[in-house]
Amino acid sequence: MNSLIVVASKSHGNTRRIAEAMAETLDARVVTPDEVYDAEIDAADLIGWGSGIYWMSFAPELRRRVQRLDARGRGRAFVFSTSGLPETPLRRYSRALVESLAGRGFTVADDVFACRGLDTMGPLALIGGVNKGAPTTNDLAAAQAFARRVRES
């Protein structure tokens, strides 16, 4: 299976660590949204799309990369993220990315992987951030288990 992980990880490398754990399980290449070509996306059987969450949204460069894709039949995809706080019922940011991927022809996994990550955005920097030490080794193991489930489904 030809797998790929597209990740935007900016502040502390939280999401990159999750992406690398998943890539190890999937034997996948990890790339940024600016490093991946359409041909590579089209050739992949399974692609993970993820980023940290910034003000309740996926990274703009990840969203723009998905939006630049033509709508056509593609392989399978899954979504993952790290964030300081959990997704709220009022703002389902993961659903927007899932719908965007489906609109470009991906068959998207029903489940989304999300875990906490060190967050020092805005006023949180004044107190040294929240979720120090995250993602944890348990989070990395959960990411690998999620990747196995997606691969096998």
From TrEMBL:
<dbReference type="InterPro" id="IPR029039">
    <property type="entry name" value="Flavoprotein-like_sf"/>
</dbReference>
<dbReference type="InterPro" id="IPR026816">
    <property type="entry name" value="Flavodoxin_dom"/>
</dbReference>
<protein>
    <submittedName>
        <fullName>Flavodoxin family protein</fullName>
    </submittedName>
</protein>
<dbReference type="Pfam" id="PF12724">
    <property type="entry name" value="Flavodoxin_5"/>
</dbReference>
<feature type="domain" description="Flavodoxin">
    <location>
        <begin position="5"/>
        <end position="88"/>
    </location>
</feature>
